[in-house]
């Protein structure tokens, strides 16, 4: 199977995820600037999740660029990733509406952790389908960001019971790590 349908489906799901997140933003009923103050946690959680969805969309695009064929296991792994990403709107809204309370912040971290694991699984299945000369394997190399992100998510998720703000800081840290353009796949692609 070609990768075109997989890319189109994934792009559509990610677009819907962003749409659902923005529809969760409720406008104030007054024109007073002070009416925005209670919405600050909601807006901040939306911005963080929008950045994460953007990071996943960008990296997923590059990941599929290296894929020559799509196997059944790759399709299922991709659905697994999309499942966890589809929970972003729920945990984003819950966390923002509850002003970053411990349980919603922990749930957000669990979803981030599971999405990261699902992405790694998808990456390994694509590498496995390409054989010993895997373009993706050469591109990701030691993958320090990919390996450290789930560990940081786990630490952040566990820390929510002591300090939800520390967890938030760690979630932002991982997002900032991935905002730095990752050119590994592009660099390997342009060698050919």
Structure characterization notes:
With 192 residues, the protein is mostly helical. It has one domain. Helix content is 76%, strand content 0%. The protein has 9 helices and no strands. Helix 1 runs parallel beside helix 4 and helix 4 packs antiparallel against helix 5. It is globular, with a radius of gyration of 18 Å.
Please trace the helix and strand order, writing H or E for each element: HHHHHHHHH
Report the mean per-residue pLDDT as an integer. Answer: 92
Largest sheet: none
Q: What is Rg?
A: 18 Å
In terms of topology, how is this protein built?
Blueprint: H1 4-23, H2 40-65, H3 72-86, H4 88-97, H5 102-130, H6 135-140, H7 144-159, H8 164-179, H9 184-190
Helix pairs in contact: 1-2, 1-3, 1-4, 2-4, 2-8, 3-5, 4-5, 5-7, 5-8, 7-8
Short description:
Keywords: Ion channel, Ion transport, Membrane, Potassium, Potassium channel, Potassium transport, Transmembrane, Transmembrane helix, Transport. The chain is mostly helical and 192 residues long.
């Amino acid at each position: 199977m070609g990768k075109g349908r997989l890319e189109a489906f994934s792009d559509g799901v990610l677009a819907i995820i962003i749409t659902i997140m923005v529809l969760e933003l409720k406008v104030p009923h007054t024109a007073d600037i002070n009416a925005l103050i209670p919405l600050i946690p909601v807006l901040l959680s939306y911005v963080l999740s929008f950045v994460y969805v953007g990071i996943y969309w960008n990296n997923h695009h590059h990941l599929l660029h290296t894929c020559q064929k799509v196997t059944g296991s790759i399709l299922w792994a991709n659905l697994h990733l999309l499942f966890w990403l589809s929970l972003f709107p729920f945990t984003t809204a819950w966390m923002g509406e509850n002003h970053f309370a411990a349980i919603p912040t922990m749930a957000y971290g669990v979803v981030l952790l599971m999405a990261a694991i699902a992405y790694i699984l998808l990456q390994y299945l694509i590498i496995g389908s390409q054989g010993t000369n895997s373009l993706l394997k050469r591109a990701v190399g030691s993958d320090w960001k990919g390996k450290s992100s789930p560990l940081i998510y786990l630490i952040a998720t566990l820390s929510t019971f002591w300090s939800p703000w520390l967890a938030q800081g760690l979630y932002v840290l991982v997002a900032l790590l991935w905002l730095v353009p990752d050119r590994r796949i592009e660099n390997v692609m342009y060698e050919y």
